[in-house]
Amino acid sequence: xxxxxxxxxxxxxxxxxxxxxxxxxxxxxxxxxxxxxxxxxxxxxxxxxxxxxxxxxxxxxxxxxxxxxxxxxxxxxxxxxxxxxxxxxxxxxxxxxxxxxxxxxxxxxxxxxxxxxxxxxxxxxxxxxxxxxxxxxxxxxxxxxxxxxxxxxxxxxxxxxxxxxxxxxxxxxxxxxxxxxxxxxxxxxxxxxxxxxxxxxxxxxxxxxxxxxxxxxxxxxxxxxxxxxxxxxxxxxxxxxxxxxxxxxxxxxxxxxxxxxxxxxxxxxxxxxxxxxxxxxxxxxxxxxxxxxxxxxxxxxxxxxxxxxxxxxxxxxxxxxxxxxxxxxxxxxxxxxxxxxxxxxxxxxxxxxxxxxxxxxxxxxxxxxxxxxxxxxxxxxxxxxxxxxxxxxxxxxxxxxxxxxxxxxxxxxxxxxxxxxxxxxxxxxxxxxxxxxxxxxxxxxxxxxxxxxxxxxxxxxxxxxxxxxxxxxxxxxxxxxxxxxxxxxxxxxxxxxxxxxxxxxxxxxxxxxxxxxxxxxxxxxxxxxxxxxxxxxxxxxxxxxxxxxxxxxxxxxxxxxxxxxxxxxxxxxxxxxxxxxxxxx
Length: 585
Ligand SMILES: Nc1ncnc2c1ncn2[C@@H]1O[C@H](COP(=O)(O)OP(=O)(O)OP(=O)(O)O)[C@@H](O)[C@H]1O
Prior knowledge:
- Helices cover 64% and strands 10% of the residues.
- The longest helix has 54 residues.
- By secondary structure, it is an alpha/beta fold.
- The model has no long low-confidence stretch (mean pLDDT 87).
- The protein has three domains: 320 residues, ABC transporter type 1, transmembrane domain (ABC transporter transmembrane region fold, Up-down Bundle); 172 residues, Rossmann fold (3-Layer(aba) Sandwich); 73 residues, 3-Layer(aba) Sandwich (Rossmann fold), CATH 3.40.50.
- The strands form two sheets. A six-stranded mixed sheet has the order 6-7-8-3-9-10, with helices on both faces. The protein has a four-stranded antiparallel sheet with strand order 2-1-4-5, covered by helices on one side.
- The site of adenosine-5'-triphosphate has 16 residues, from helix 13.
């Protein structure tokens, strides 16, 4: 139960609802218990009438009165039961909502290494499946526990008053029922977890096959993938059947145990009636109703125990993530004014998960309004430099400053708000092109979006689509070419007119002619801003105020295009190679 203590803050938040719910539950049960007592009353009236102790009119009137009481009590009981669910189950929905938001917001604060170490499916499961299990504890488990407790106390009290001996015998099978239901629920849970695993395996397999359908078709391996799917589906079917077998035991067990309780009531009650220990046959009818009223609540004890255990396990998994402290912390609450002087002072950085030292003792300065180009072989640390500027990771050694202030002392949100970042693999959401671009600036007007698209040289492509800027991208929409994606991603970064622009090899998929045009536009837009362009092409780097060349995390060359083409090294080699490859006029 330790993990579930996390929910206490929510129970406190909704304590008014909960208290009202508990009171309603108790009152509803009180009304429910009227029925058996009036059933006994009816039997007594009938017995008295047949004994000739009352007239037909009195008999009729008393019978109608008892029936009306039963109907009235049942009606009030039903209305209160409705409100009981409305209060307690609603509280569990509020808690589910709050918990999902808490987890989601926490996920957002966690650093990229967290996402590297944990699979997306696992993150999703904890916010959906696990939260649902926890909700079962926060709502149904609490509601049924109060229900059962109230009912047991009241029913046993009434039963004991009517016949202590009969009470003992009839209650005897109920704990057995509870234990059996507990064992069954546990086994059902275990088997349904396996079924769930197979369902997600099946959906992952299907999703991957259809996302990669072009590869499957190109290699002609449809038969093999169909066979793999069939094998998986077969295993999944077997697990489903094994679950269904276990579930099939549930109601027969209940019926068996209720049946034995009923038999005991009739047998022992009947004997007591014959011996004169029970005055009215109505007592047996009353007991039969009590036993049936108790059966479900007692069965729920077993069910609730297994729900609580599952919720505990789920909340433990949720807490595991909630207890992870974000590696990147905002150290300054007040907004910081960000300008564009960026300095790296002997910066070194090692990725925790791979232990790869991506940056080694790197130092450089870019002044506000300047453009820096970073070149280097693949894996030399170019993207890492951009990630460090956006504080997606914190440096291990040395320091990065912006306007002479240490990066980690700046307000994190101000910093990121002033950065326009175009990642290497442009990620676009399954939304309209317009929304994908204005994502960078929530209050962007239509004109802002169009202007950004023009500057990124993608406007002409967009207006050719039937729905123009409202064209939906992604799975259910249009697929953009690699170059178009990159340019939409550039539009998204420049629309917010940030102080710092970071372009991570984002022109790799466009032809050199388009690259030239985009770079020309960018040099206009980025006037007064600091731009860092990571590239594999000299054409993207040549106009920069400063160029650095990285090799294995170290700066191996530094200078301008003119200076670097005149010294032997990586830059000159690349320049000559790309010069010979470029189309001759
Ligand atoms: N998130 C990460 N976790 C662990 N190691 C990483 C991570 N990202 C990059 N690396 C490693 O750090 C080194 C530098 O990678 P980086 O992506 O900065 O290189 P790059 O110069 O941008 O490469 P490319 O030109 O291929 O994009 C590589 O060896 C890479 O394997």
